[in-house]
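I am writing to request your help with a piece of structural work I have in hand. Here, with my thanks, is the record as I have it:
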Amino acid sequence: MKTNLHELFSFGQSPWLDYISRKIIDNGHLQKMIDKGIVGVTSNPTIFEKAVSAGNDYESMLENLTQKGKSKEEIYDTITIRDVQDACDLFMPVYRKTNCKDGYVSLEINPQLAYDTNKSAEEAERLVQIVDRPNLMIKVPATEEGYPVIETLLSQGINVNVTLIFSLDQYRKSADAYLSGIEKAFLKRKDLSKINSVASVFVSRVDSLIDSLLEKEINKSDNEREKSELKSLMGKSAIANSQLIYRQNKKIFSLPRFQEMTKNNANKQRVLWASTSTKNPNYSDVKYVKELIAPETVNTMTEDTIEAFIDHGKVEIAITDNVVAAEQVISNLKERKIFIDEICQHLLEDGVKKFIDSFQSLLEAIEKKKESF
């Protein structure tokens, strides 16, 4: 069936699904999403934790693995790898049709290794060997310890989804790691046309945190003009931050350093808009889709957001080269002692912690189910 997701893809933005589970693979729902125009899927520890804890989708598999004497870590490995392999197979026609541009399934490295460069690289290489699918993308967090991992994996021809990017500085370092990685891959005579990467910029969380700070200032103020000015900044920071990152993306990949690599069939690292479901009920339910439409980007959405966009979203360019308004938003926040870099650093640390907590909760949920068999 044709939807406006197909129109979005034709425009130049790839719609991906921000969810994976055994249930939607087995009952054909994931294939239906592909038919609607979804061209990729991402996963993370929180998604797997919810899928395992909330239902019975994995019961028979968990019981079978428990009877075989598998540890909770081994069980986690088995169920996630199987889901990712099966999803990769479903997306393989998309991968081939788009000449390796889309059709990817992202699998995150154990988040407990986020601050360990060597172990992260080793774990990524292990997962790539086991999954054994060309359309696998390994998710690596944009931490200081993660950038060398990104470079190493790309140099080996491994696709990378750089995750948990919040700040412009993180984005620059992620792009530099990508460029260094493909340069090394070229020296190793890897086929650069088959190496792809996305830089996942988390969007709505920026608004959620900054809006909460603005609300506090509004509630403290007795000045109506000041209140009005503060209210005018609500819901603006995330898009402004994203616009500045997108401008940087266009700048970096128009420089000679990358243009030289295109002669060897190198792909541009695309910006992926992540965390694009609307958290504030006062905002449009497709706010972080319609306001971030731009060529050569990806938007990974929850199913609710996808259905909302199919129902009433419009495909029209939203991000342009004019970032004056975006820069003004960041400047206005700074005047009120709200510093975007500090906010983004906090969100990064919190994001890593949440993934670690979800991973631990997932292992605990598996252990609890093991005990019930």
Q: What stands out?
A: The domain at 4-204+237-315+347-372 is CATH 3.20.20.70 (TIM Barrel). The mean pLDDT is 94.
